[in-house]
Amino acid sequence: MSMPKEKFHRIIDLLPEDRYEKLVKALPKIIFEGEKDSDDLTSDELTEILAEANKAKEEVAKGEYATYDEVFGDLSNDV
User: Fold this and answer.
1) 15-65 residue pLDDT tens
2) Per-residue 3-state assignment (H helix, E strand, C coil) for 4-42
3) What is the reported pLDDT for 76?
4) Domain coverage including residue 20
5) Taking the C-alpha atoms of 25, 38, 36 and 19 in order, what is their torsion angle to the nearest 10 degrees?
6) Is 0.85 surpassed by the pTM of this model?
7) How far apart are CA 68 and CA 4, in angstroms?
8) Over the Cα atoms of the chain, what is R_g?
9) In terms of Cα–Cα distance, which of 67, 79, 75, 60 is closest to 16?
């Protein structure tokens, strides 16, 4: 099995260009999810997280979101 970085590069290489924007939007949420315990967050960070969560809820309500399958499709089978 290849190293995680090599695997990530392979996924990017296989990803159609029309999915790049969705991936760029999704990556920060995936990468930083659960990185800090909520007890370690400042009030400004909590406020920012709540604002982002509310924005995300609004986007979902308007149908403005991408599922994992829309971003990656069947690429997981190719990696």
Assistant:
1) 888 888 888 777 777 767 666 565 677 888 878 887 888 888 888 788 887
2) HHHHHHHHHHHCCHHHHHHHHHHHHHHHHCCCCCHHHCC
3) 58
4) 4-78
5) -10
6) no
7) 19
8) 15
9) 75
Q: Which residue has the tokens 């590069």?
A: 9
Number of domains in the chain: 1
Q: Are 18 and 70 in contact (CB under 8 A)?
A: no
Residue pLDDT, tens place only, 3-15: 778 888 888 888 8
Break the chain down into helix, strand, coil percent, rounded to 5.
Answer: 75, 0, 25
71 pLDDT more than 50: yes
Task: Report the alpha-carbon distance of residue 5 to residue 13 in Å, rounded.
Answer: 12
Long-range own/partner contacts, residues 23-28 (CB < 8 A, 24 or more apart): 23/71, 25/66, 26/66, 26/71
